[in-house]
């Protein structure tokens, strides 16, 4: 869906991005990770032409967008940055309506879209539409920032450390929201983060960059199990690699049929919990088996300590 070919950006003598090539399919969530200054933001900003590439091509649906007028291109691409960048003197409604208005949508369509997006992000439309950004919490502002970026149904959403300034709980909550919305809308996302945890949790593919170059592009599991020697290995290869592997799978993916109930009933865990949480619960409860339940509390199966040890092991 989006393909970057031999993309480079030179600032004076410095190669901020050096001969970068990668492809992200429609509906995929791609994370760009790497240390500070490795060229992640520059890459993102070349895709929506806030920065002009020195060399290379960017194809969206096979069309070379480096030849399109930047304003026209940016209306097809949503962009969310850390700290949101909402217009302070415009209401939440006006903020979200920005691009649809530029595109000349009818008022009724704009109103309906604003309400739809606020509802999607669990913000009550009657309460929030007429508020101003300073009347919202950081987490609410960030949700509005994402809603605004999605307003005109862009084919691609670019996000530059969108949750970087939030406290850990709000951050986790918004990560879950974004994943839910992404799955619902099937939108393609490229997001920059310096947080490997966030990348592993959310991405279909992770692109690891260092000094302007792409070192590895892989699924979270492949990256954790087979990191390229050198920088990628030092980035992902800590002792907690096994726990990160557990964090990317859901309990429902590894559960087995429930055995006969034992004398002391096993603790329960939700089918959509991840395996790291299951491991934590087993340790905390001093148990060796958990019963897996759905949202209604119905028993679906079980996971055991040996199942989890196997999933987190080097293979
Ligand atoms: N407008 C500019 N003029 C000159 N150099 C720049 C400019 N923008 C970025 N750079 C340099 O290019 C390199 C890559 O910057 P970039 O912002 O893309 O890195 P990053 O990986 O996003 O870093 P961070 O995680 O700290 O945001 C850095 O060395 C930076 O100093």
Tell me what the structure shows:
- It contains 15 helices and 13 strands.
- With 315 residues, the chain is α/β, with parallel strands linked by helices.
- The strands form three sheets. It has a six-stranded mixed β-sheet with strand order 6-7-8-3-9-10, sandwiched between helices. Strands 2-1-4-5 form a four-stranded antiparallel β-sheet, with helices on one face. Strands 11-12-13 form a three-stranded mixed β-sheet.
- Strand 1 and strand 2 form a beta hairpin.
- Helix 5 crosses helix 7 (138-150) and helix 12 packs across helix 14 (275-285).
- 35% of the residues are buried.
- The mean pLDDT is 89.
- Bound molecules: adenosine-5'-triphosphate.
- The site of adenosine-5'-triphosphate has 11 residues, from helix 1.
Number of helices: 15
The whole-number mean of residue pLDDT values reads 89
**Series of secondary-structure elements, N-terminal to C-terminal:** EEEHEEHEHHHHHEHEHEEHHHHEHEEH
Please identify the structural class as seen in this structure. Answer: alpha/beta
**Rg (CA only):** 22 Å
State the main characteristics.
alpha/beta; four-stranded antiparallel sheet; 15 helices; binds adenosine-5'-triphosphate
